[in-house]
Amino acid sequence: MLLILPIILLILAIGISRFALQRYEQGITLGAKQTVPGALTAGEAARLFLDEHEATDVKIVEHNAMVSDYFDPERRVLFLNKKVMQGTDAASWSIALHEAAHATQKGEEKKALLWRLGNIRLARYAPAIIGIAAIILAFVKRAPRPAIFACGVAFFLIALVNAMSMAVEYNASQRVSAWLERKLRRHADMLDLFQRILPRVAWRDTGALIRSPMYLLFGMLPVGGRMRPK
Q1: How does residue 179 score in pLDDT terms, banded at 50, 70 and 90?
Q2: Helix segments in 55-183, DSSP class H
C-alpha cells in the first residue's frame, strides 16, 4: 500500500501535465492554418493590444530559444519566437496576444502572475532534479521505496500547485477575447475560432512537468546561457 499511493500520485502528475500539453497542442493545431483577416502579424497585433491598454512601456523582442513566447513582468519585455512574431495565423496571434495580456495585469493580478511564474519554473526544473536524486538514492542507499514515495508525492504536489495557479492564464485569455470582439466583430467565424483556441493556449505551461528533463538539460548546456535574453 505504501508503494501504490506514490505510484498513483506520479501517474496523476504525469496525466495532468500530458492533458495540459494536449489541450495546448489542440489549440495550436486549430489556428495554425487559419489566417487572421488584415495584414497584421502577431507581433504587430500584440503591439496594438499593448498600446490600446496603456502598456506602451512594454518592449517586444524577438527571441528564439527553447524558452520563449513569454512576458517578463520585471523587465516589462514580451519575448516572442520569430515564427510567432511574424505569423499571421490565428495560433500565432493567440500566443502573442495571450502573453501580451499578462502585461496589463496589475495589483493582485500581477501578484498572481508572479506566483504563477514561480510555479512554472518549479515545474520546469524541480521534477528532473528530484528524479535524478531519487535514482541516486535508490541505487546508492538501496532505498527504492522511499525514493519512489518522495518522487510520487513531490511530482503530484508540483503538478497540482501549477494547475491551481491557472486562473491568471484564463484571465489573460479573457482580456484578449474582449479585445478581439471589438477588432474582429465583422468576422464571426474567426471570433468563434479564437474562442476555441485561447482557453487551450492558457494550458501551455501547466504541461511543463513532463518536459522537465529537456529544460534542465537546456539550462546546463553552455549554449543555454547565451540563448537566454539579456
Answers
A1: very high
A2: 82-86, 90-101, 108-140, 144-164, 167-183
Question: CA 144 to CA 148: how far, in whole Å?
Answer: 6
The C-alpha atoms of residue 131 and residue 154 are separated, in whole angstroms, by: 10
Q: What is the pLDDT of residue 221?
A: 61
**Whole-number Å distance between alpha carbons of 188 and 190:** 5
State the Cα–Cα distance between residues 220 and 191, nearest whole angstrom.
42
Average pLDDT for 186-210: 95
d(CA 228, CA 217): 14
* Contact criterion met (CB below 8 Å) for 216 and 122: no
CA dist., res. 96 & res. 87, Å (int): 10
Domain regions of the chain by residue span: 4-227
3-state secondary structure of 62: strand
Give residue for cell 488584415: 38
Q: Taking all residues of the chain, what is their mean pLDDT, rounded to a whole number?
A: 91
CB of 42 closer than 8 Å to CB of 180: no
Distance CA 221, CA 229 (A): 15
| SS3 assignment, position 71 | strand
Residues 153 and 94: their CA atoms lie apart, in Å, by 34
